[in-house]
Amino acid sequence: MEVQKGVFLTVGHLDKQTVWHVVRNSSAGLDSSEIGRLVGLLPRSFMAQLRKIQGLRQDKYEKRFVYYSDEEHTYCIQRSLRSEESKKMPKKLPSDAEAIFILVDRIKHSGPSVEQCAQRLRKKGKSVSIVDVQNLLAYHDIEKNAGYFLVRALTEHLYQLAGNISLKTLFRSIPTIPFVPLIERCLHCAYVGKAKTGLGRC
Questions:
Q1: Where are the domains positioned within the chain?
Q2: What pLDDT, on the 0 to 100 scale, is given for residue 76?
Q3: Residue burial 35-61, b: 16+ Cβ < 10 Å; e: rest
Q4: Fewest beta carbons less than 10 Å away: which of 65, 71, 135, 176?
Q5: How far apart are CA 97 and CA 75, in angstroms?
Q6: β-strand 64-69 against 30-31: which pairing, if any?
Q7: What pLDDT was estimated at residue 52?
């Protein structure tokens, strides 16, 4: 994804103005992993800020949250370009959970081939193919066993998975669980208590 220059970092974290600038000037929107690669930070250091930034629009695209400009014309262009670029990427990428298993295996076993990686994971009951491993490594542009990039990719998928199952993602509003007492009649005096507590007069 192309992004114009002019990105500014504050000490230790990515400020909201920087995120706004990076996303608005991207050609096809950005997900948290892509933002992190551009500015040299791990997504965990700024993911909490993304949903709160005004001027951005969040859409889920191919199992990932992608951030676009909220200006309608720019959004349509970014969304269209992302669709075109995704056609150039490997056709099938493993899920974040499967990617985590693959990357952990590659970190543990630095020498063996992708075929052996897939074979080990299948023995553990994971439905991972050789193509899955190859596509994942190609997506992250990892050649052979580049340790740092494997760990970085693993961190990205861990936080992507955590973001996808967070309460804010699963529920648009805070769920309310109604309270229904198990006992509505006092066992000692047979008094029918208040509906909320079920307590008798005794």
A1: 16-86, 96-170, 176-202
A2: 92
A3: bbbbbebebeebbeebeebeebbeeee
A4: 176
A5: 29
A6: antiparallel
A7: 76
Angle between helices 96-108 and 147-164 (to 10 degrees): 150
Residue 14, pLDDT score? 59
**In terms of residues, how long is the chain?**
202
Environment class of 26 (CB within 10 Å of its CB; exposed 0-12, middle 13-18, buried 19+): buried
**Mean pLDDT, each 10-residue run in order, the chain (202 residues):** 44 65 87 77 71 82 82 91 74 84 89 86 90 86 76 82 70 75 63 49 53
Which two three-digit tokens encode residue 193? 């208590």
Determine whether 125 is exposed, middle or buried from the number of CB atoms within 10 Å of its CB (0-12, 13-18, 19+).
exposed
Rounded CA separation 70/49 (Å) = 16
Please tell me the predicted confidence (pLDDT) of residue 24: 87
Match 């000037």 to its residue by tokens.
25
Stretch (H or E) spanning 197: none
The top-level CATH class assigned to 16-86 is mainly alpha
Distance (Å, whole) CA 33 – CA 42: 8
Nearest alpha carbon to residue 124 among 97, 93, 88, 155:
97
Confidence (pTM): 0.52
The pLDDT assigned to 72 comes to 92
Angle between helices 16-24 and 32-39 (to 10 degrees): 100
